[in-house]
Amino acid sequence: MENGLKIAIGTEAFPPTVDGISTVAKCYADIINEKLGTATIVVPEIPNSYDYKFPYEIYRYKSLFTFGEGYPVGWPFKRQFADDIINRNFDVLHSHCPIATSYFFRRINRIKRIPHILTYHTKYEYDFDSRVKSLALRHRAYGMLLNNIKAADEVWVTSKGTSDSLRKVGYEGDFVVMPNGCDLPKTECDDAMKAMIRRKHNIPNGIPILLFVGRMMWYKNIDIILEACKILKTDGRDFRMIMIGMGPDENAIKKFTRKLALDDKVIFTGNLDDRSELQIYYGTADLLVFPSTFDTNGLVVREAAASATPALVVAGSCAGEGIKDAQTGFLCLETSRSVARVIDNVIDNKDLLCRVGKKAQNDIYISWDESIKNAYNRYQVVIDKFNSTPHGKYEY
């Protein structure tokens, strides 16, 4: 948009790699370019990208290799990369990951100071502690992470609880809470749409449908979900649990499901790239079951609320922030028995589920338009603060 701010949106992953942070980066770029200013995605290279499909610039810098489900490892050390960004005259560098791209922005700031914002989305200590076995390498990884965070002119978190993770990695500075939004519109699925999902998965009418949406990783407490399903089945409760997503632990999760003899109750769909189809799943489900204490914002809770479907979340978790028990959602303890108990208590009470779902839609839903407008207004605050402060030699 003419005369708007020029923003560099830094991320480690962007479509065709799809996860929560790549979705956030895409929403920022979509809305800023359409309604507010100009945004360019800054991301490592990846094979089979289809950047030409996007109506804005995707700047790809070098990557060494990809791992997992197509995650590139960025190599931002070439001086030409920094010059490319500097020559675009961005007003703000906004990184959504404190790894390679944040380090890239640090290198840029050694040459020319540009206001730098970092949004800290996820609990990186989980990945470091589980994947980096060497104590010395883990110490270096934490040091790099902390330096990347401290180098930002302003740090944003997506929920108050995320600050606990920041403190664990050693960050002691200030931060701003900037919640993510939801790209699904407020809507209610009609009976024909719900019947389509039931036909697709051969689920008889009247059988309650539970839903999980997210990456297939154990640290999202998927074992708690499956163990709760086992308790419900053992107690004679009929239901279907639909699991949407894929991830590195997917095969192990499916094996555990078979071990618990839940093949007749649990349905795995894989990834759903069609957001409108995903919304029909949300609208068809009676309850989103999301006992993760790893997620820092729990976007799926707001996505379910868009379709007036309530969520079951762990009390005190980041995903549970703003949830009032039996009013805008349902709270449980971080145990399979507590999850099973709450499901058993509420799943037959359609009036309660409907009332709580509608209140969640009215009270906790926030659109990406609103969220990114708030972020865009904050950009100007950061710019003004930056311009009013003398800047000596860049220390990072």
Describe the structure.
The protein is an alpha/beta fold. The protein is built from 14 helices and 15 strands. The chain has helices at residues 20-36, 79-86, 100-111, 124-131, 135-151, 162-168, 191-201, 222-234, 250-259, 275-284, 299-306, 336-346, 350-363, 368-387; strands spanning 6-10, 38-44, 58-61, 63-67, 71-74, 92-95, 116-120, 154-157, 176-177, 209-213, 240-244, 266-270, 287-289, 311-314, 330-332. The strands form three sheets. It has a seven-stranded parallel β-sheet with strand order 3-2-1-6-7-8-9, with helices on both faces. Strand 13, helix 11 (299-306) and strand 14 (311-314) form a beta-alpha-beta unit. Helix 2 (79-86) packs across helix 3. The radius of gyration is 22 Å and the shape is globular. It starts with 5 loop residues before the first strand and ends in a 9-residue tail after the last helix. The mean pLDDT is 92.
Quick tags:
single chain; 396 residues; alpha/beta; 7-stranded parallel sheet; 6-stranded parallel sheet; 14 helices; 42% helix; globular
- Provide the residue-averaged pLDDT: 92
Residue ranges: pLDDT <50 for 5 or more in a row? none
Anisotropy-based shape: globular
Main-sheet strand order equals 3-2-1-6-7-8-9
Distance between the termini: 33 Å
Number of strands: 15
| SS class | alpha/beta
Question: Sheet bearing the most strands, described?
Answer: 7 strands, parallel
The helix/strand series, from N terminus to C terminus, equals EHEEEEHEHEHHEHEHEHEHEHEHEEHHH
Number of helix segments?
14
Q: Which band does the percent of strand residues land in?
A: 15-25%
Helix fraction?
Answer: 40-55%
Radius of gyration over C-alpha positions, nearest whole angstrom: 22 Å
